[in-house]
Amino acid sequence: MNAINMEHHWLPFTNNRMFREEPQIFARAEGVRYWTPEGQEIMDAASGLFCCPAGHARREIADAIHAQVMELDYTTHFQRAAPNSFRLATRLAELLPAGLNRIFFGSSGSEAVDSAMKICLAYHRARGQGQRTRFVSRNWAYHGVNLGGTSLAGMVNNRRDFSGATSDVVHMRHTWSDEQRFSLGQPETGADLADDLEEICKTYGAETIAGVFVEPIAGSVGVILPPQGYLQRLRAIADKYGLLLIFDEVITGFGRTGSAFAAQEFGVTPDLMTMAKALTNGTVPMSAVAVRTDIQQTVIDAAEGDRPELFHGYTYSAHPVACAAALASLDIYRDHGLFERAKALSPVFLDALHSLRNLPHVFDIRGYGMMGAVQLTPGAKPGMKGSLVQRLLFREGLHLKATGDALIIAPAFVTGEDDLARMIEILRRVLGRADL
Ligand SMILES: Cc1ncc(COP(=O)(O)O)c(C=O)c1O
């Protein structure tokens, strides 16, 4: 370990001072396990960062990536294309809710979010409503870290240092309430929180609002579920006032809820949807925005002469190697029935998670599909206990994500029941420690 010079890499979303004192490094991964450079086994209870539902080191994906590099390693997609991006877009259109079938590619969830915002603006402008420039989001929301996503952010730490550069976004209330603690499934009450959107339309003028972004399940903040009927009500209000509804499915996409997308799981179809992470099983950075057919058509119809319809795109949009990795990942999900597996494993996972409810330090447990969170009672300062527990868990052989005092667990869909039990046992052991 001493051989690694750690001075130069500025780690993202990391306390770099603390990290250098106790580096927590993964050197290898396979299935649902990581190994440190010293050979210690660490169970992966977070699918990396919600990225790897098929487990690590999938040979099929590695082979597809290798073959693609040797056949066509790179092409721009500005006025050029490679065949496999069309194949991938078609496969995604088949998986998505009907009508969401025009696909724009990027390399990260943050890029997908900012692309979706720009598509909304371009659409309204194309239909003569260019004054719709404001967005609505929600407290506690996470929509990535580019400037659009930072503006949408409802997690205060992600905005505070950058407030000078954020644009006009109005926030609805989040949907968590104390009475939901330890409940299973979607909360029965709280659908009326969607009426915040109507209030905002009245206060700011609906004609100034381009769209409303929500994570169907708020993931990064610690798995907050939509109350029953809430997403339906947002859909109805968005329709009433001519707003676009955008689901950010960067975490919930590709089976995490037990359906291909949360849109299908909850029976509400947005106008645009963002996705990333599991699109390539985490192997190659890639994201996408799915857009309703007529939204793309409106933008296309408004273009004049030989100019592009949308002045937006990335050097790595639809990177051929990322497309190959995505196609191989979608094959695995289909051929091994992994979304169905997620649905079948979910009750086992959620039961195991809820078995932790009587431990000290546990304030709440939430979950849906194959994502869940254990909310700890706060320590001396918010987030301190979560960060301590995350470090202790690593020492004890478990990787998960901590946001503040929420421990977020999102195992791969290929996790065996015995491995799931081991993950929960490590959690139980650490949460039971007297010195927390
Ligand atoms: C809902 C949501 N949107 C956007 C993002 C940003 O994705 P990325 O980190 O790939 O930019 C994330 C990341 O966790 C996310 O959860």
Automatic annotation (TrEMBL):
<keyword id="KW-0808">Transferase</keyword>
<dbReference type="InterPro" id="IPR015424">
    <property type="entry name" value="PyrdxlP-dep_Trfase"/>
</dbReference>
<comment type="similarity">
    <text>Belongs to the class-III pyridoxal-phosphate-dependent aminotransferase family.</text>
</comment>
<dbReference type="InterPro" id="IPR015421">
    <property type="entry name" value="PyrdxlP-dep_Trfase_major"/>
</dbReference>
<dbReference type="GO" id="GO:0008483">
    <property type="term" value="F:transaminase activity"/>
</dbReference>
<dbReference type="Pfam" id="PF00202">
    <property type="entry name" value="Aminotran_3"/>
</dbReference>
<dbReference type="InterPro" id="IPR005814">
    <property type="entry name" value="Aminotrans_3"/>
</dbReference>
<keyword id="KW-0663">Pyridoxal phosphate</keyword>
<dbReference type="InterPro" id="IPR049704">
    <property type="entry name" value="Aminotrans_3_PPA_site"/>
</dbReference>
<protein>
    <submittedName>
        <fullName>Aminotransferase class III-fold pyridoxal phosphate-dependent enzyme</fullName>
    </submittedName>
</protein>
<keyword id="KW-0032">Aminotransferase</keyword>
<dbReference type="InterPro" id="IPR015422">
    <property type="entry name" value="PyrdxlP-dep_Trfase_small"/>
</dbReference>
